[in-house]
């Protein structure tokens, strides 16, 4: 229940983030809605295609498409005003990343024979690939591959969730504690600009 | 029958458009053929993957690959001459967009439980995603997200088609009337440079 | 057996090539591992999705993910030293291209009703699409569409393999001879800079 509510809020937030990127790339209103929808629902879509889990979420629940399209249109109309809610977006995006991850792990776990590492991996795909597809369509190197820790939060959340469930502890406790951990770490990462190590580009000179 | 003939002509036209783009990007003949094939068959492929509809069209009918590869090679050889047929291409492309959409809706309708909005959406994916994948492979922001109304024509065509069928009217009437409407609107859009509204990029400043 | 050993070595080599590209694009260690994994396992993943062949290889064998991630991390740490092994990489990459192709043909052949042309095509997808996805994620026009003959080697290898099997000749002979032919042609192509024909860009002027 809680997770589902967070999910619906999060797809709207992701749709808005996608829409803003579409505006910045000078797209028309169709493009803005499409980028918003891809940003919001792309992660779950990629996950379901990777495991052959049909029908896709938004095919079974067309209202999800309605939500993301409405959110994208609102973003396009109210873009200037949204500026004031910038930090609210970061918070909702963090919540969404963690909720997407847990939902992704749950769906992967419904396939009996998946290794725990694959479950965590598919949770990460759910959390991260929407933004990745958004950036590919906007002709950018995906931010998630370069940004302060983001995908790592997803991996951490998924690992904790799978671990707690492995100990046969109640599902609600697993959900709440991994939600809380992931969310806190992500907010701290934003606040203190935590980044994963990067390599010196000079070191690969001569490989072109 | 009519639809199938239009389909075969349209995949050749799309393959030629893809091939010309490949030439412009300095690709070799393999790249030119691949981009042409993706432009022609990519939309249907994405649709089938999204709904788990196997085997894919070109897997069941390898001759489609033959057509698109031949069309791409012809385009590569006769590129300079094709210049004179520029407006013919726009007409065939418009026909193709509309035919792809109707075919996509038909395949989606063969899944009993799909909501009409999903059927229209999958028709649009069929019509539009070939060009979108072509542009992603050529490292461009997809034209379809920024161009004079194109995807919207697809949505309009699909909606009319689904609506007429919903009224239990004969399938041929549904096909012909939505084909005609979509085709006319697309040609008018090209002629008069109809565009969807776009947002002022200044309004999203500060979101980077 | 031989093929499987080559496969494991090849996915590590591809993961390293992906990782080096990630470093060059200033990605963090997560991005480096993801690009490496996509480069190594992306081709087989695309093939399996195109034919609905589940579970995917790395879902059934999570250890493949372990190999590619380790290889990517090693590449990130030892990037400067890898420089000295540049030509070794080209050799392993050539072996990988050919091995991927044959494995891809084998899996496609397990679907009884596939046309030989589709089998060869799916072998090529297995060999080539990992590098293609890597380049799309790194915001480059895929090298494979422009480079000295690479995909063509894959098509040649697959065609020979399918042809020999069609003649009812022993599978091991088919594997070995197509492996050898493809590998030699690829090395010769690198050595003598063989390229497929390219078209003069001037010829498509006026099509923009």
Structure explained in plain terms:
Three copies of one chain form a homotrimer. Chain A is an all-alpha fold and 208 residues long. In chain A, 73% of the residues lie in helices and 0% in strands. The longest helix of chain A has 24 residues, at 86-109. Chain A is built from nine helices and no strands. Chain A is globular, with a radius of gyration of 17 Å. In chain A, helix 2 runs antiparallel to helix 7. The mean pLDDT of chain A is 90. The A-B interface holds A 20, 22-32, 34-35, 45, 49, 52, 54-56, 58-59, 62, 65-66, 76, 79-80, 82-83, 86, 136-139 and B 49-52, 111, 113-115, 117-118, 121, 132, 136, 139-142, 144-147, 149, 151-152, 195-199, 201, 203-204, 206-208. Chains A, B, C: InterPro entries: Gly_transporter. Chains A, B, C: It is found in: Cell membrane.
Summarize this entry quickly:
The structure is a homotrimer of 208-residue chains. Chain A is mainly α and 208 residues long.
Tally the beta strands of chain A. 0
Derived structural class of chain A: mainly alpha
Chain pair with largest interface: A-B, 35 and 35 residues
Strand content of chain A: under 5%
End-to-end gap of chain A: 51 Å
Mean of all residue-level pLDDT scores of chain A: 90
Order of helical and strand elements of chain A? HHHHHHHHH
**Tally of helical runs of chain A:** 9
Low-pLDDT stretches of chain A are none
Net shape of chain A: globular
Share in helix of chain A:
over 70%
The radius of gyration over CA of chain A amounts to 17 Å
Major sheet size, sense and barrel closure of chain A: none
Assembly annotation: homotrimer
Transmembrane segments (chains A, B, C): 6-23, 30-52, 64-82, 89-111, 117-137, 149-167, 173-194
Family (chains A, B, C): Belongs to the UPF0126 family.
Main location (chains A, B, C): membrane
Keywords (chains A, B, C): Cell membrane, Membrane, Transmembrane, Transmembrane helix
């Amino acid at each position: 229940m809680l997770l589902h509510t967070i999910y619906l809020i999060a797809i709207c937030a992701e749709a808005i983030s996608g829409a803003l990127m579409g505006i910045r790339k000078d797209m028309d209103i169709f493009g803005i809605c499409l980028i918003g929808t891809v940003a919001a629902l792309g992660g779950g879509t990629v996950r379901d295609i990777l495991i052959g889990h049909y029908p896709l979420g938004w095919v079974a629940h067309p209202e999800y498409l309605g939500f993301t399209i409405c959110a994208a249109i609102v973003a396009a109309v109210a873009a200037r005003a949204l500026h004031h809610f910038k930090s609210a977006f970061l918070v909702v995006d963090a919540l969404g990343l963690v909720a997407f991850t847990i939902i992704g792990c749950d769906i992967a776990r419904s396939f009996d024979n998946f290794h725990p590492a694959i479950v965590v991996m598919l949770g990460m795909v759910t959390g991260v690939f929407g933004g990745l597809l958004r950036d590919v369509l906007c002709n950018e190197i995906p931010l998630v591959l370069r940004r302060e820790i983001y995908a790592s939060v997803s991996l951490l959340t998924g690992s904790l969730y799978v671990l707690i469930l492995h100990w046969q502890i109640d599902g609600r406790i697993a959900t709440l504690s991994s939600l809380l951990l992931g969310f806190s770490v992500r907010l701290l990462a934003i606040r203190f600009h935590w980044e994963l190590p990067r390599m010196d580009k000079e070191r690969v000179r001569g490989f072109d």
